[in-house]
UniProtKB/TrEMBL annotation:
One of its GO terms (biological process) is thiamine biosynthetic process. Pathway: Cofactor biosynthesis; thiamine diphosphate biosynthesis. This is Thiamine-phosphate pyrophosphorylase. It holds the Pfam family TMP-TENI. Keywords: Thiamine biosynthesis.
Length: 214
């Protein structure tokens, strides 16, 4: 099984910090997993960002995952990809990327999760937990109970797929979420829009590690 970090930080297009600045701050805070999520730039701009971010990640020993854009595989120092399309053919994507590249996917139902596991995904971002302004959508909210049920159903089916809660998660949600047996948490807005980015990241990290059920 590949290395999957329990707290995954996701960059976003926001007005006050570039993606590169977000990554620099996250790595200074101790981040070991960055998901670069930029759907607004052309390939040249994406690669400029990714190459700069990859250098920062290399300096800090941080895993770099890119949202979608699998056509950039091999063109920069990228360790993996996260696919947001819940209907994507992960079998074909895995074949295209090869087995060494980390591959994650988004899911909103247990059926999504089972399909991801069967088609070669290494982990799943399962959400949204709550309403989020970072990535607006109309999918049903999972809620704490939904995570617990999903974990139990996967166990019953003997499926081992690391689940990360994502979507509108606040610091006060972490303990209850981690107690459901999920693997970890992916976060963006609660850190990006905090008063102190580094302190917020470190508070999230500490709580995720302390609350994890092993």
């Amino acid at each position: 099984m590949k290395y999957i970090e329990k707290l995954q930080y996701i960059t976003h297009d926001i007005p006050n910090l570039t993606h590169i600045e977000q990554v620099q701050l996250a790595c200074e805070a101790g981040a070991k997993w960055i998901q670069y999520r930029c759907l607004s730039k052309d390939d040249a701009a994406l690669l400029a960002d990714i190459n700069a971010i990859a250098e920062i990640c290399d300096d800090w020993g941080t895993t770099l995952i890119v949202t979608d854009h699998i056509h950039l595989n091999g063109k920069a120092d990228i360790q993996g990809f996260h696919i947001e399309d819940m209907n994507a053919d992960f079998t074909a994507i895995r074949k295209q990327l090869g087995n060494d590249v980390t591959l994650g996917g988004s899911a909103n139902t247990v059926e999504n999760l089972i399909r991801l596991a069967n088609q070669g995904a290494d982990y799943a971002g399962f959400g949204p937990f709550a309403t989020t302004e970072t990535k607006p959508n109309h999918l049903p909210l999972i809620g704490v109970e939904g995570y617990y049920k999903a974990v139990q159903e996967l166990k019953a089916a003997n499926i081992q797929l690391p689940l990360l809660a994502v979507g509108g998660i606040k610091i006060y949600d972490i303990e209850a979420l981690m107690q459901t047996g999920i693997y970890g948490i992916a976060v963006s807005g609660a850190i990006n829009f905090s008063d102190d980015f580094i302190e917020a990241y470190q508070d999230f990290y500490t709580l995720v590690k302390e609350s994890a059920v092993y």
